[in-house]
Task: structure prediction
Amino acid sequence: MTTPRRPRVFMDIAVDGSPVGRVIFQLFADIVPKTSENFRALCTGERGKSLTSGQTLYYKNSIFHRVIPEFMIQGGDFTKKNGTGGESIYGAPFPDEDFSLPVDSAGLLVMANRGPHTNSSQFFITLAPAEHLNGKHVVFGKVVRGMEVVKAIEDIQTDAKDNPLKKVEVVGCGELEFKGQAGTTAAAAATTSKAAPSKRERSPSRSRSRSRSRSGSRSGDSSGSEVESDEEERARRERKRRRKEEKREAKRRRKEEKKLAKATARAGSADGSNAVDPLVMETEEEYDLRLEREEKERREAARLEAQKRQREISKMGKVDERTGIRYKGVHPLSFP
Result:
């Protein structure tokens, strides 16, 4: 039986227009489903415009309007962007769902409110334990990656009303997709790895064939050079044949896995269960590694883009020593 998986959503943060990183949250949908769904849908923007206010129900381009060091950072007001607005996907403010989770550590995702049963879209991320909020604010998630981004926001200077002196904006947000079956464990990955031997496991036979050909070359004489070359040629053909067989076998296994995944999905939809479509058998460990890899790639792309922009800006007003052309714009002139 598969276990439900907690959703993960993300927010890409920029300070005064400069990207500082991504924060990834895990939502406690198994404990507070209504509160979690509100936050998830506001991250994806899938609900479109509100029938009540006409505002787009979306956290993108909203700001963190309140920062209190060693306590919390607050955001989610996408209507007025000053802490006096906000709207839930349910229209009116919705009730406090569950107070069973304590506000006992940093990195917790907590609903902001104006009193009992006044939850909308505003939320805060804790920077330290805040037990005095227990029984007053609903905890519905936690930061699983990007706490360094939260700390960077904490370090921004604020005015007397705790408003940051720099614009802290959510420039992108959404939900992260888990490519695999709920409840997939590392044991399943181990079973898969056993069924498909790795290159490292296959390499000894190849190394032995190479060593035999090398030993033959050392012990051979001029008359045996032709025999040696024939042996090497046969060994080369054998290696080539094995590689082709391995590719065919890997292709066959992938087809079987896809067929199994489709059959599982059809069976789940036939009996009415909420089966996840496991197009790729991805474990929790592989999921975390993929998120980390994608985050590194995103940061590297942003860094390269910033370097390119800086090089273009540095050219402005300078004279090219080779051509004597003075660059007055961002891009140099091109001539046919």
In short: Confidence is low (pLDDT under 50) at residues 182-207, 273-280, 330-336. The CA atoms of residues 294 and 300 lie 10 Å apart. The helical segments are 33-44, 147-154, 186-195, 199-219, 225-270, 284-315.
